[in-house]
Amino acid sequence: IGEAVNDTEIDIKDKGVRPLSLAGHVGFDSLPDQLVNKSICQGFCFNILCIGETGIGKSTLMDTLFNTNFENFESSHFEPQVKLRAQTYDLQESNVRLRLTVVNTVGFGDQMNKQESYQPVVDYIDRQFESYLQEELKIKRSLHNYHDSRVHACLYFISPSGHSLKSLDLVTMKKLDSKVNIIPVIAKADTISKSELHKFKIKIMSELVSNGVQIYQFPLDDETVAKVNTTMNGHLPFAVVGSTEEVSVGNKMVKARQYPWGVVQVENENHCDFVKLREMLICVNMEDLREQTHTRHYELYRRCKLEEMGFKDTDPECKPVSLQQTYEAKRQEFLVELQKREDEMRQMFVQRVKEKEAELKEAERELQSRFEHLKRIHADEKATLEEKKRLLDEDQSSFSKRRAAAQLLQAQSLTANGKKDKDRKK
Amino acid sequence: RHEYSELHNRERRELFIRGTDLFGYVGIEAVLDQMRRKTMKSGFEFNIMVVGQSGLGKSTLVNTLFKSKVSRKSCTPNYEEKICKTVKLHSVSHMIEEKGVKMKLTVIDTPGFGDQINNENCWEPIVKYINEQYEKYLREELHVNRKRRIPDSRVHCCIYFLPATGHRLRPIDVEFMKRLGKIVSIVPVIAKADTLTIEERQEFKERIRQDLASNGICIYPQKEYDEDQEEHALNEKIRESIPFAVVGTDKEHQVNGNKVLGRKTKWGIIEVENVAHCEFSHLRDLLVRSHLQDLKEVTHNIHYETYRVRRLNESNVDFSVLGLTPWLLENGTADQSESQL
């Protein structure tokens, strides 16, 4: 906290900056108002992520918090994987326009194997950071028009078992605590008695501490709110009850849940911590949540990302390296890598072509040899047939010779007989 | 196009934004107070540059604006008004506070400007200084490990002093404002305006406005950056009265039983804060009371961004080429079909 104070405040002990008193009213005391007016024109963005099991009351709590009816879907318990559903609404209260995005987990805690349950949540948060980072690194960028979708507050809904945190809770919160402001809440707190609740809260907080989970602490650096924030820090996690139905209590209509044994009033601080949650989340610390997201969680993400890509502020000799140098080096590396991949691909392609070519050649050769073979068979058969024909021809010719000879013989014999007959007649 | 922004856009398209009515008080408007508290705590920075020939009353005007001895002239011991051989820039910072609002005010003086016999390129040291501040900011912004709050030494406003000749803009005025108008918000003022009658003043201003328009000089508030109708109407009124004719002083006199800031002459007392006498109040209202934050935002969102685009293009730095995509592919969390590598 000490660091934060020094970093964001202008250092009065800055060398060469002397305090000076003014002889009269100058008028720059209107600066905060000028700033606020500009923000009013631009509007505010606030993004809440609700993590909790199906049916634990996330949507109801959001409706109750913002006094409205968001579009709610009842989810099934049979989702194969955890998903996130984000919805954005434009709200207005007097002259303040708020663009609120509510992100709910769908199917959290329903799977048989919950080992990877936290991953889609982490991915979603990272994607919003990534989106902002990409916008920030663009050459032509428009950051002040950018719809900031980074998650400012994460409400983690704890099941009101009354005993302790589930291991899923611990694992998930541990994965998220360096990425987002976590505010744990005990859901459906009307199922726990007051004494059990007190023990439950202590158990939860000690488990969080012993597991090294960093949840969001309401800031204590501003005197105006330090006192109320300190008190509230002691009430964490908030035990909440949500309801949009109204019940008549006394002569007023209040938001409540009606049971045969009594009425649980949402806004009654004796019944649950709903009012405290609303105070802390919206009325007192919304701006701090946004600031922490930007200056701490986003900066951490950005730093890690850039370091991963090889960017550094100083080189091994601790001389400052300009981004340009690093960028050029990275670019060279990238181009070399790209070239290598291209070469590999080309080689592979050439290889494949060769293989295919060989295959085709082989097939062609085979085809050719088959053709030759057939041709030979064909020729053989032709030769055989020709031989047969020749024999047949020979036969035929010898037959006709013999026939001719026989005919001659017959003719001769006839003529000879005729002559004999003639001779006898004489 | 990036895989990430594709996925992100797809997610965003899935959600529809609609106006939702609140059934009762939530407390959203408390965010205004939260913001006010935070800015009061962290304080403000404002850097103002004064440019003009010696003797035009730059130091006096700045002192009058901020009702204290903020100018270099008043702060430097053994100060002697010398004509510098070249244009030098000096900056002096002070911490001032009013009703709990803390401001680090830096005044950048430019002695020697327009004082030489040959004033060609006298704007160059000034252009260099302004760009150096943008460069400093850019470097810090590009650091991997960067400060929570980047120290802002960028020039938010440049007051250019025109001598009250009554005629038109001189070549040095045109050259300077043409060049600087592209990189910083210029507010021209007519200095020592008590030498002009009201009619002379009006004509002078009209001619100056014509000269500004005909030379394509961009001064603050720039028409292109008016965000809405309301702002446009307000700024049009300001544009119609620029340049403000000012008189500066730190001496007080008694007028009608009141103590007023004024210059006493044999023919009367010129009341600096009297709008019938001079336009100092308008200038102060513009610079301090109504448009200070706007000056800073124009510097940050427009002038600085222009510089940044130019610098990144010059160095051929385009992060999208490097692709934040290899990480995406390695992690395998994005839809493979969207991969473009």
Description:
The complex is a heterodimer of chains A (426) and B (341). By secondary structure, chain A is an alpha/beta fold. In chain A, helix 8 crosses helix 9 (286-308). Chain A has helices at residues 2-8, 31-42, 58-65, 118-137, 167-176, 194-210, 223-233, 274-284, 286-308, 323-425; strands at 17-20, 44-51, 83-93, 96-106, 153-158, 182-186, 238-239, 246-249, 252-259, 262-265. Chain A is built from ten helices and ten strands. Residues 1-8 of chain A have low confidence and may be disordered. By secondary structure, chain B is an alpha/beta fold. Chain B starts with a helix and ends in a 10-residue tail after the last helix. The interface between A and B is large, with 101 and 97 residues. Chain B: InterPro entries: G_SEPTIN_dom, P-loop_NTPase, Septin, Small_GTP-bd.
Number of E-state strands of chain A:
10
What is the topology, as strand order, of the major beta sheet of chain A?
Answer: 3-4-2-5-6-7
Low-confidence stretches of chain B: 1-6, 10-16, 324-341
Total number of domains of chain A: 2
What is the CATH architecture annotation of the largest domain in chain A? 3-Layer(aba) Sandwich
Overall pLDDT level of chain A: 86
Number of structural domains of chain B = 1
Please give the order of strands in the largest beta sheet of chain B.
3-4-2-5-6-7
Q: How much helix is in the residues of chain A? A: 40-55%
Largest sheet descriptor of chain B: 6 strands, mixed
CATH topology of chain B: Rossmann fold
Give me the number of helical elements of chain B. 12
Shape of chain B: globular
CATH class of the largest domain in chain A: Alpha Beta
* Quaternary structure classification: heterodimer
Output the CATH homologous superfamily of the largest domain in chain A.
Answer: P-loop containing nucleotide triphosphate hydrolases
Distance from first to last alpha carbon of chain A: 169 Å
Coarse structural class of chain A: alpha/beta
N-to-C span of chain B: 11 Å
